[in-house]
Design brief:
12 strands; 4-stranded antiparallel beta sheet; mainly beta
């Protein structure tokens, strides 16, 4: 069983930076894509950034130039470096691994979510 654990959230002033981490536990064989989503109060969850196994990245327009997604393939950890933070970035941020194949069952792929971490941008 794969579990994802996020860390790095917190309270930051506008213009500040935070780095979120999402570490996977379990015996992973491969992952198709790693992504970060966020959900603000009263709003639908949205995809913030995604990184595919081929190295392709995609960002929602509102964070382009401010956020960077990266990964450590050695231990299947994905990061979200957030800069120039704005109050509208306030949300619960969750990571998601899609198309996860585990060593014990390499032909079966599942998706996994982390529990979420709160990011609050406020002065």
């Amino acid at each position: 069983q794969v579990q994802l654990v996020e860390s790095g959230g917190g309270l930051v002033q506008p213009g500040g930076s935070l780095r979120l981490s999402c570490a996977a536990s379990g015996s992973i064989f491969s992952v198709n894509a790693m992504g970060w989503y966020r959900q603000a109060p009263g709003k639908q969850r949205e995809l913030v950034a995604v990184l595919t196994s081929h190295g392709t990245t995609h960002y929602v327009d509102s964070v382009k130039g401010r956020f960077t997604i990266s990964r450590n393939n050695a231990n299947y950890t994905v990061y979200l470096q957030m800069g120039s933070l704005k109050p509208e970035d306030t949300a619960v941020y969750s990571c998601r691994f899609t198309g996860v194949a585990e060593i014990a069952t390499p032909t079966r792929r599942n998706d996994y979510w982390g529990q979420g971490t709160q990011v609050t941008v406020s002065s």
